[in-house]
Design a protein that fits this description.
Helices cover about 50% and strands about 15% of the residues. It is of the alpha+beta class and about 210 residues long. Helix 2 packs across helix 5 and helix 2 packs across helix 7.
């Protein structure tokens, strides 16, 4: 099994395809699976994406967006919807999945538990090092666990940021995630100054090749 030694656990594009294609045993895990996919392609916090609704959809130049204000920052935002998200809307007759509970904290707790089941069912078993509470000591420690056990509500934002970093302009990604600075964003995705320098070098090389 692939071993990913990092506390910055995320789901890559192949894993997301696997999760999306895996049949779920009941409606609750199917709802959680759909919200998980939505979160990984919209970059929003759980307090925001579980409030997504059909009446927030807007179309601009033939493309579909969500018009929201982030709960934590108050920042207004247009979120472009990818095919992975619109496929879920199409399957659900244009609606987002329902909530699990009328209480925001209850909603978050249920979702956090169910997405571990979703990833386990989809066989996201590769080993990762994650910061988790040791039941024997009741303290947080870095432990080697199957990835599905390390999945939490942050996985969507982290997956979006990590999967698109280096492929899409970082400023655009920061605008989508709502981080207050590039340094904060890079820390979030587990990148350092070396990675930034490599990304710059690749971009400069690509520019030079296109200009030749």
């Amino acid at each position: 099994l692939k071993y990913q030694k990092t506390s910055h656990v995320h789901l890559d594009f192949e894993e997301l395809k696997t999760i999306a294609a895996t049949p779920m045993p009941d409606s609750r895990t199917e709802i959680a699976r759909d919200w998980l996919i939505i979160s990984c392609f919209t970059a929003q916090r759980v307090s925001d994406f579980l409030r997504f609704s059909k009446d927030k959809l807007v179309e601009m130049k033939g493309m579909l967006f969500l018009d929201i204000s982030q709960k934590k920052t108050g920042k207004p935002l247009y979120i472009p919807l990818t095919k992975e998200v619109t496929d879920i809307l199409d399957k659900r007759d244009g609606e987002f999945p329902p909530a699990f509970s009328n209480h925001p904290e209850g909603n978050k707790t249920i979702y956090n538990s169910l997405i571990k089941d979703v990833c386990r069912i989809a066989k996201i078993h590769n080993k990762v090092t994650a910061h988790r509470k040791n039941p024997r000591t009741n303290r947080y420690e870095f432990m080697e666990v199957p990835k599905y056990k390390a999945v939490s509500t942050h996985i969507g934002r982290r997956s979006f940021a990590t999967n698109y970093y280096g492929k899409i302009n970082t400023a655009l990604l920061i605008n989508a995630t709502g981080h207050s600075s590039e340094a904060q964003f890079l820390k979030y995705v587990g990148k350092d100054g070396n990675q930034q320098a490599l990304t710059l070098a690749k971009a400069m090389k690509s520019f030079a090749e296109q200009s030749a």
